[in-house]
TrEMBL record:
Residues in HTH iclR-type domain copies: 30-92
The UniProt record lists the keyword DNA-binding: yes
Name the record gives this protein: Putative transcriptional regulator
Region described as Disordered: 1-24
GO molecular function, one term: DNA-binding transcription factor activity
Keyword Iron-sulfur: no
GO process terms (BP): negative regulation of DNA-templated transcription
Swiss-Prot/TrEMBL keywords: DNA-binding, Transcription, Transcription regulation
InterPro entries given in the database record: GAF-like_dom_sf, HTH_MetabolicPath_Reg, Tscrpt_reg_IclR_C, Tscrpt_reg_IclR_N, WH-like_DNA-bd_sf, WH_DNA-bd_sf
Ranges of residues in domain IclR-ED: 93-268
């Protein structure tokens, strides 16, 4: 619930607070955390399930200490064990954290450019990445207007009906791009949605030629979007778009936004 804080730690003994504020406390590593991360890093380097003795060999930790660390990580969901006495491997929870960290790095790179667009047009600016056949919103700056269109971070939309998705997919390798186009029936979001694979291929070709993706009321009635790809190390990694209510949208504004997107440095 927004605005409610958890006070469950308020009953900790006062000496804990005093110890935390003592000289050098902030710079002294907590031993069990050091061991836990050493285990996680070692298992990531191993890259496959490993028995206790192998993890002990790589980490240099005593087997008794290592067993306790591993069992704690299993309880927390960061490590899985194959059977009660089998090998250990990292869980998907670790990879989820890694993915979020990469997305956070990407977001920090692109946010300054998003703010440039927001200041110029005062329309909602979105940042998204491809997630299978979906585009996943990882950041948004909302327009400061009485009427605006805002999609919160964490939302997913279909790639084929959004400027965000099209801007990414258009710049994928041909084989990967075509696999997405033909993966299944293209869902109609509105009466205007492009749902023919051949028509979508033509749209994506136009995106590559133009440098930007456009859609007017194909994903949501009353909303137009224009997006451009974001490249990381020479490969398309994400896209940025502006969402504009159709009562403010015009072909001239669309061209102005497209030109602004092309001017941005979205290669990192």
């Amino acid at each position: 619930m927004t605005g409610v804080t958890d006070d469950s730690n308020s009953a900790l003994p006062l000496q804990d607070d005093a110890a935390a504020e003592s000289p050098g406390a902030a710079s002294k590593p907590i031993g069990v955390l050091v061991k836990s991360f050493a285990v996680i890093e070692a298992m990531a380097d191993l890259g496959e399930p490993a028995p206790l003795r192998e993890v002990a060999r790589v980490t240099g930790l005593p087997k008794g200490t290592l067993f306790r660390v591993l069992q704690t990580l299993v309880q927390l969901g960061y490590v899985n064990q194959i059977g009660k006495t089998g090998s250990y491997h990292l869980s998907s929870k670790v990879y989820y954290l890694g993915r979020n960290a990469r997305l956070e790095d990407l977001k920090m790179k692109v946010l300054p450019q998003m703010r440039v667009l927001h200041r110029r047009f005062n329309e909602t600016v979105n940042l998204g990445v491809l997630d299978g056949i979906f585009v996943y919103y990882i950041a948004a700056i909302e327009a400061q207007r009485a009427l605006s269109w805002y999609v919160p971070a964490g939302t997913r939309d279909m790639f084929h009906s959004t400027a965000l998705g099209r801007a990414i997919v258009a710049h994928l390798p041909e084989e990967q791009r075509d696999a997405l186009v033909t993966r299944g029936a293209l869902e109609s979001r509105t009466a205007r949605t492009t749902i023919s694979p051949d028509a979508l291929r033509a749209v994506l070709a136009g995106v590559r030629d133009d440098g930007v993706a456009r859609e007017v009321e194909e994903n949501d009635d009353g909303v137009a979007c224009i997006g451009a790809p974001v490249f990381l190390d020479g490969r398309v990694a994400a896209s940025v778009s502006l969402s504009i209510p159709t009562n403010r949208y015009s072909a001239e504004l669309g061209d102005e936004v497209a030109a602004a997107l092309r001017e941005l440095d979205l290669r990192f």
